[in-house]
Fold this protein.
Amino acid sequence: MMNRRRFLGGIGAGAAAGLIQACSFPANPLSAPATAPQQEFAMLKLIRSNDRGYADHGWLKTHHSFSFAGYYNPEAMGFRALRVINEDFVKEGRGFPTHPHRDMEIITYVLDGELEHRDSMGNGSIIHPGEVQRMTAGTGVTHSEYNPSREKPVHLLQIWILPEKEGLQPGYEQKHFPDAEKHGRFRVIASRNGQDGSVVIHQDARLLAAKLDAGQETSFPLSKGRHAWVHVARGSIELNGHKLGPGDAAAVTDEGLLNFRGAGASEVLLFDLA
């Protein structure tokens, strides 16, 4: 079973003026497996945006695809190695003060606005749309994330993937992936071996992104024994004939080919998982 230290360490403990409350578990957290529960779904299961957890902290509005902080759903503890997808809207000039993480692969994907990052490894950067940041928390890091704008909120996805082993050396990457490389097709943006210049994650998993116009189609062959999680970041699509809107997702098992069709300008993330 995942020990309490790792469970809380991945989330981040410690609070400054209560701002980090959104990143911590309840006082009496439930234990969780050392890897995400291997929930098996028949073929393709749809998860609607409204079925996610939601919290409004004033400065932060956040949707949780899986159990996180004050949101607990025993049927949504993760999918394969995928542990967290949080869709965050952070008000201008606000953010998460310095807090710790450990033993987690953390990917930040900005959709609109800008996010300022600083960490204990000495990294300081601004993450823009089209850029992907990967942080290996490993033996332990601290970092802060703020919206540097005084005029508009930042809209982002925070993604956590369980690493293949604990105690990794902390690490950091940030790369830009042009829209042209994602237009009408899936582009690998994170992978175990840095495929096609993607950021490196320490897990048998790939994260791909695509942007589709209305009526535009693409497909993804899912290898035998692999699983997929599809998340619609914005816009609407059809997936194997099923309609999905913004924030909707699909858990896929034993489905050989995934066919995507844009129902309007859309952006889709696809996790290819062991």
Summary: Residues 3 and 31 are 7 Å apart (CA to CA). Residues 1-41 have pLDDT under 50 and may be disordered. The helical segments are 4-11, 179-182.
